[in-house]
Amino acid sequence: MELFQASGLTCLLIPTAFFVTFVLLLLRASGRRGRRLPPGNLGLPVIGETLQLIAAYKTENPEPFIDDRVRRFGAVFATHVFGEPTVFSADPETNRFILQNEGKLFECSYPRSLCNLLGKHSLLLMKGSLHKRMHSLTMSFGNSSIIRDHLLVDIDRLIRLNLESWSDRVLLMEEAKKITFELTLKQLMSFDPCDWTESLRKEYVLVIEGFFSVPLPIFSTTYRRAIKARTKVAEALSLVVRQRRKQCEAGARKKDMLGALLDGGGGSGFSDEQIVDFLVALLVAGYETTSTIMTLAVKFLTETPRALAQLKEEHDKIRAGKYPCEGLDWNDYKSMPFTQCVINETLRVANIIGGVFRRAMTDVNVKGYTIPKGWKVFASFRAVHLDQDHFKEARTFNPWRWQSNSGSTTPGNIFTPFGGGPRLCPGYELARVEISVFLHHLVTRFSWEPAEEDKLVFFPTTRTQKRYPIYVRRHDASGQCI
Ligand code: HEM
Ligand SMILES: *[C@@H]1O[C@H](CO)[C@@H](O)[C@H](O)[C@H]1NC(C)=O
Ligand SMILES: *[C@@H]1O[C@H](CO)[C@@H](O)[C@H](O)[C@H]1NC(C)=O
């Protein structure tokens, strides 16, 4: 949530304070005339409650900002953050309503500075029928039959390759990021890890840092560095796209995402620039998300020995039925029920995507209130996932809770780590498979303990810089498997 740097804000405060106070008064007045705004506190002019939001996210309590306001105002409340009046929802029905009405009553909305980093043809920014077409192309590219028949072999091999290279002390978060980046590059354009992919990743890390330095880019060197790095990444990728286009015209096709894009995705063809933006966005979307879940699953397992033992038993059983170096297949993946509980529970308590921002395209009525046209809306998944009313002892890591019910007490709109509606995450199955395979090789080949000095806090409230170093011990001669 550290979406910007607070210091820059004060520069803007004085000149615009009068103007904004005026606008806020107008808004409140119009609220009184017929429309009822959700209850809440819009805070100070311009900065609103932004500073409270940031302060809250620097503490260890997962949801202090939202908790406090839900108690005072209810599950749907108004506030004013990042320079705009915003309605927060901690209510599953309202969240579902927001997700399902994407493109009708609400549309996704990112700050300008983020759009520059993503590129204007990114799936995250597309709207309307083009979005629909590209979303379904992306969905079908990552669907379960493609994973089963094509991607799983590489996922298994590349994860094994990464683990082979571990020394006795590793920075788990770093390795997890390397893994997810390598997997995405492989699946998008059939690259195996090499010096080129690693130097691309170095630039890439700078781009990602830019995402956490907005929306006052003029003041931010991190942001400027990110824009430069983005240009470099785009150049490197355009080169690849051009080469592949030539090969493609000469009749050499590859069955990867880039191949599908070069084929035109079932419509008129895409330009190189469109394809590059699209690839950049896919790399962004899967990188930080999947790697934090991998790392935090390990952290929670380490702190919950009974869960780790049960997970290990599940995976040892799978291993026992295979040759030492044999890769996992789809049946193996499908016989990991407890692993899925662990993954769901990690997604529930520790997803770095706490929710999604939208903008109201028109006046929208929810729960007897009006969200005025143009206002921002934040559908908080995390607030629902950590609500005692929906999950017993919601703030405890308890993978067994998923065992007993398998969905009965948690209908689809309560647990939404991957969003929903027209923008449902196209990587939801892929992420699950990647995390499962990673856990498989980790627990069957290694034991570990965390290195004392750099323990992750319970919850990644602020974007954690921590890398979760662990000491590992290898249990087999897996070095021979490459
Ligand atoms: C644990 C891992 C992941 C989590 C928690 C996650 C979560 C999400 C969520 C909540 C959204 C919805 C955003 C919105 O509604 O505005 C989303 C969208 C998206 N995700 Fe994921 N994701 C994960 C992994 C991945 C992976 C591995 C990929 C790559 C294939 C991916 C690609 C995308 C894309 C392209 C979108 C944009 C979809 C659109 O706007 O139409 N995600 N993700
Ligand atoms: C997955 O996508 C492919 C096209 O990429 C399609 O042929 C197949 O039917 C899809 N499978 C499922 C289970 O949706
Ligand atoms: C995990 O969550 C998904 C929804 O993302 C759900 O479909 C699935 O049934 C859950 N798995 C378990 C074991 O409860």
UniProtKB/TrEMBL annotation:
Organism of derivation: Eucalyptus globulus
GO cellular component: membrane
Taxonomic placement: Eukaryota, Viridiplantae, Streptophyta, Embryophyta, Tracheophyta
GO molecular function: metal ion binding; monooxygenase activity
Membrane topology term: Single-pass membrane protein
CDD domains given in the database record: CYP90-like
Tree of life domain: Eukaryota
Pathway participation: Plant hormone biosynthesis; brassinosteroid biosynthesis; Hormone biosynthesis; Steroid biosynthesis
Localization, UniProt: Membrane
Record bears the keyword Metal-binding: yes
Name of this chain's protein: Cytochrome P450 90A1
One BP term from GO: brassinosteroid biosynthetic process
Stated family: Belongs to the cytochrome P450 family.
Keyword DNA-binding: no
Coarse class of the protein's main subcellular location: membrane
Cofactor(s) of this protein: heme
Binding residues annotated for heme, in chain numbering: C425
